[in-house]
Design brief:
The protein is of the alpha+beta class. The chain is built from 11 helices and 19 strands. The protein binds flavin-adenine dinucleotide (FAD).
């Protein structure tokens, strides 16, 4: 077992995805002692479309992080190309970037370490049941050799993603997977396999079985990521065959080497947690639940929650006993703002005939898809600066009339 500089921390952050790293960076820059623990060896592959939307960049900008992604070769996005039943619709979509998750998550971890965070990968964390005798939260860490150590934190931020199990000993946090939930898959193909996808364009092929997004990454390789209906399994047990069917139905080219690629799976996607906080244990990002990847919202939501959770812990006027109510209201507020369009689009995509009709309409009246994109990326930008993030935390304080009225 690696030894840490301390067994007692201000905050232990579990999971080094965007939610965990952003929270850790903000807290450490404010002088808090933070341990960031990650189960996998970094850098690691993550099933993802690798597109950061303008809301995500807006939040990262508050911490001067988005320029690091651009400096590392992130590709600016200017177009979204939807394909369905042989039809194609191009929608201008400026403001986002594409970057591989290996690179992006590593850059955020490096920024965390630079800010003073102690980072440990290859280490699985488990939040222990709460104790009456102490308000400090115990976390059990198990390294890749199976050695175990117990440490404690005044607060614990859980950002362990969709398949995380850091809360499996805490019965108060259950997860409900929605009926008809799709499952996720991703693969990287080498640059020479590119079937004609333009740099800076997000290509999305949709069909009866699900949808597949493809983008060119910073090194020229192609990232394919998909959400597929579990019913599709009746048609084939081979992942690449299912995805080939979706591409062909949509009228997209199937790249060479597609069948032999290494496909990484994600669990059933649409899920919800029974609660988002208990005492000083706060959940962030996908750990709070997820809808679907189509709108490219997941990372925006994750970084926004990471920053908001850190602001809550740093806010001198919120006491420890108020964290649970405050954080629950903050998450509910973010969910209400963001999930509504994601749900609408996800259910629209399950009806290929409607998608085709929508695309026809979009061609005739280009303002319609433009309006949908503006609904997704423009209205909800609570973090114009860090004091705005603080105001979210504050407005979610128990007893605040403005927030109470909206719930
Ligand atoms: C197919 C697909 C495509 C997507 N495309 C996009 C897209 O284009 N744009 C977008 O914004 N979002 C996209 N998303 C969503 C996005 O990937 C997630 O919303 C985002 O990664 C959530 O970040 P997070 O920090 O909450 O969790 P994650 O990024 O999942 O990070 C969680 C981390 O916690 C670690 N962990 C798990 N358990 C433990 C433990 N017990 N101890 C320590 N560490 C642990 C994991 O190894 C992981 O590194 C997509 C998702 C899918 C499935």
């Amino acid at each position: 077992m690696n030894s840490f500089s301390s067994t007692s921390w201000d905050t232990i952050v579990i999971g080094a995805g965007p939610a965990g790293s952003v929270a850790a960076i903000r807290l450490a820059r404010a002088g808090r002692r933070v341990l960031l623990v990650e189960k996998k060896a970094f850098p690691r592959f993550k099933v993802c479309g690798c597109c950061l939307n303008p809301n995500a960049l807006n939040t990262l900008d508050q911490l001067d992080l988005s320029s690091r992604l651009l400096d590392a070769g992130a590709i600016p996005v200017d177009q979204f190309r939807l394909r369905s039943r042989g039809r194609e619709l191009n929608i201008p979509m400026p403001g986002g970037i594409v970057i591989s998750r290996q690179k992006m998550d590593m850059i955020l971890v490096e920024a965390a370490v630079e800010a003073g965070v102690e980072f440990q990968d290859n280490m699985s964390a488990l939040v222990m049941p709460s104790r009456e005798s102490s308000s400090a939260i115990q976390v059990e860490l198990t390294d890749s050799e199976g050695d175990v150590q117990v440490i404690e934190g005044a607060s614990v931020l859980v950002a362990d993603g969709l398949s995380g199990s850091a809360l499996k000993l805490r019965d108060e946090f259950s997860t409900t997977v929605e009926e008809h939930s799709y499952f996720g898959m991703s693969a990287h193909l080498p640059p020479e396999a590119n079937p004609g996808i333009d740099w800076g364009t997000i290509e999305m092929a949709t069909g009866k079985l699900g949808y597949i997004g493809s983008v060119v990454l910073e090194d020229g390789s192609i990232n394919y990521s998909s959400a597929i209906s579990p019913q599709a399994r009746k048609q084939s047990s081979s992942n690449s065959e299912l995805l080939t069917m979706v591409l062909k139905e949509a009228g997209s080219a199937v790249p060479e080497g597609f069948h032999d690629s290494e496909w990484h799976g994600a669990p059933l996607l649409s899920r919800r947690r029974s609660r988002f906080a208990a005492g000083s244990v706060l959940l962030m990002g996908d750990a709070t639940g997820y809808v679907e990847p189509f709108t490219g919202e997941g990372m925006a939501w994750a970084v926004e929650m990471g920053l908001s959770a850190a602001e809550l812990l740093l806010n001198p006027s919120v006491t420890e006993s108020e964290y649970e109510t405050s954080w629950t209201r903050t998450v509910e507020k973010l969910r209400a703002e963001r999930h509504i369009w994601c749900r609408r689009l996800s259910s629209f995509l399950r009806k290929p005939k409607l998608v085709s009709a929508g695309m026809l309409l979009g061609r005739l009246v280009p303002a319609v898809p433009g309006w949908i994109v503006s609904q997704l990326y423009e209205p909800n930008q609570p973090h114009k600066n860090i004091s705005d993030a603080q105001s979210i935390a504050l407005s979610a304080k128990p007893g605040n009339k403005a927030t109470s009225a909206s719930h």
